[in-house]
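Inverse folding, one chain.
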């Protein structure tokens, strides 16, 4: 029942059979006895996952496997049993997809490592990790703690269920498609050997899923660690290290989970936003503030607020409010150009400028201006009328004030 509730809350897209999460519970009322009998007999067969390609922020695409909701339900039930069995023995510096652990905790551990003088970082990139996991190697690690052959067989069948793309089913000979409820715990089980190896060497490291950073005191030591750990990953785990993307960098250059670091006087370490994360923020805000999107202002602001609060909730660790203040200036200017377009006609623009405190002469001159939206949005007249308090009254949540509220909470 806990697994069923979780699947219903998560909802998600239907799999190859077209059944939605909302339809699962009624379907189980009439079919659960048959499904359970097949599970007990060890003859249950999952259906192939539906292949979906999603763009990656840095370019390219990542495969997402969408299982049918019945298979998601069963995988969720298995995961709920596996996590208490395996998770207590995972390394304390592994943070991804674990109960009670978060990306923020991973970043704080990284900050402490840098503060302690480990200012060179081995940035390890596993080439298509979720697509390359060997099933035999993974199942051998699961079998260390799971002895029930029916459970092992069921997990294996989920791994080998295949992928449907354009109506054609292809076999799954390796990999654990992202999107599966089992994928997070299986990925941690697979990489636990690497964690134990790094831990036994007394290396300072942080792992979040397949995102791995190792902190050492010198560039020379970091180069040696990169070479030796690459051998462990490729020879023992049978995974592939991307030698182009894996590198040794100073801590001030390294980025992790959307965050970067910088040094302050006295040797302190502070957290900043990865410039790529800012680029993604600006891209999304451009979409939400597009003049071509015809939507009422209150609905637009509600959509913007949901995004800003969520984004800032994640990046509240950042110690650079000046960056947010600069982004807010650009953000407000985009909002002003939307409002100017909404007023449309000169008479409406003049009336609204007068209402907001502009002089008659100024209101008349600007209402008939032929300048473009962006230029007028940066004009003194709109900056003096569509002020910060104006947008506060509209309920708009800007970046820096949101950051300040979250930091003080």
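Residues assigned per position:
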């Amino acid at each position: 029942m806990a697994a069923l509730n979780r699947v219903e809350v998560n909802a998600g897209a239907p799999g190859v059979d077209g059944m939605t999460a909302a339809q699962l519970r009624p379907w189980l009322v009439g079919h659960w006895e048959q499904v359970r009998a097949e599970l007990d007999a060890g003859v249950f067969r999952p259906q192939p996952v539906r292949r979906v390609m999603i763009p990656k922020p840095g370019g390219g695409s990542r495969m997402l496997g969408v299982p049918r909701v019945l298979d998601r339900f069963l995988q969720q039930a298995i995961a709920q049993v596996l996590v208490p069995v395996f998770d207590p023995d995972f390394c304390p510096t592994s943070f991804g997809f674990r109960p009670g652990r978060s990306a923020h905790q991973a970043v704080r551990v990284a900050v402490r490592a840098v503060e302690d003088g480990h200012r060179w970082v081995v940035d390890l990139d596993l080439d298509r990790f979720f697509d390359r996991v060997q099933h035999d190697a993974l199942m051998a690690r699961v079998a260390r703690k799971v002895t029930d052959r029916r459970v092992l067989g069921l997990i294996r069948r989920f791994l080998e269920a295949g992928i449907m793309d354009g109506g054609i089913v292809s076999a799954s000979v390796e990999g654990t498609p992202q999107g599966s409820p089992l994928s997070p715990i299986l990925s941690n089980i697979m990489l636990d050997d690497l964690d134990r190896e790094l831990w036994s060497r007394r290396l300072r490291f942080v792992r979040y899923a397949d995102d791995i950073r190792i902190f050492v005191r010198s560039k020379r030591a970091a180069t040696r660690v990169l070479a030796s750990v690459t051998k462990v990953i490729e020879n023992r785990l049978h995974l592939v290290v991307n030698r182009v993307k894996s590198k040794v960098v100073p801590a001030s250059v390294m980025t992790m989970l959307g965050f970067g670091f910088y040094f302050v006087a006295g040797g302190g370490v502070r957290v900043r936003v990865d410039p790529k994360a800012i680029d993604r923020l600006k891209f999304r805000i451009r979409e939400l503030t597009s003049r071509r999107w015809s939507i009422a202002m209150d609905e637009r602001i509600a959509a913007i607020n949901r995004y800003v609060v969520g984004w800032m909730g994640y990046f509240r660790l950042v110690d650079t409010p000046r960056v947010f203040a600069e982004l807010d200036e650009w953000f407000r200017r985009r909002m002003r150009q939307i409002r100017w377009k909404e007023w449309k006609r000169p008479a409406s623009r003049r009336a609204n400028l007068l209402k907001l405190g502009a002089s008659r002469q100024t209101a008349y001159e600007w209402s008939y201006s032929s300048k473009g939206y962006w230029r007028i949005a940066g004009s003194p007249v709109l900056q003096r009328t569509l002020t910060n308090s104006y947008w506060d009254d509209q309920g708009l949540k800007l970046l820096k004030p949101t950051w300040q509220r979250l930091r003080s909470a």
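The two ends are 35 Å apart (CA to CA). Residues 85 and 102 are 20 Å apart (CA to CA).
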